[in-house]
Design goal:
With about 150 residues, the chain is mainly alpha-helical. It has one domain: Arc Repressor Mutant, subunit A. Helix content is about 60%, strand content about 5%. A hairpin with a 5-residue loop joins β1 and β2. The longest helix is centred in the last third of the chain and has 28 residues.
Length: about 150
Amino acid sequence: MKLSTKGRYGLRAMVDLAINSSIDHVALFSIAERQNISVNYLEQVFSILRKADLVKSVKGAQGGYTLSDNPSNIKVGTILRALEGNLSVVDENPEDGDLSVDSILLCLKVNIWDKINDCINCIVDSLTLEDLVNEYKKISNENSLMFYI
């Protein structure tokens, strides 16, 4: 499975929104600027996220976007599925037909594809936006330089 730019950029934008929307609405152009993503592309992504009820939009001069729920309640899997659809690496089911071919397909499905899919779903459904924000804060604090005088 390879995530499209829609999924990758959308997840980055949602983390950015979670970091920056604690006080006020966040304008799309500010997310685009910080993440180096086209505003037009983010508009398309946020349209999908809004329809999936993951973000709320406010129109007007002081408008922008905010999360529709607490970051601790928004799973990474929910975001990726809204943007990408099914996250399966292979969506193959053995059909009625030649038993030797179907048996091999079933063997691969049960022993490889289903297990990979389960692992992917387990990971993305165990992480929340809050988890990613906390990890971001740890990383950004580790990378900041402290000068003592």
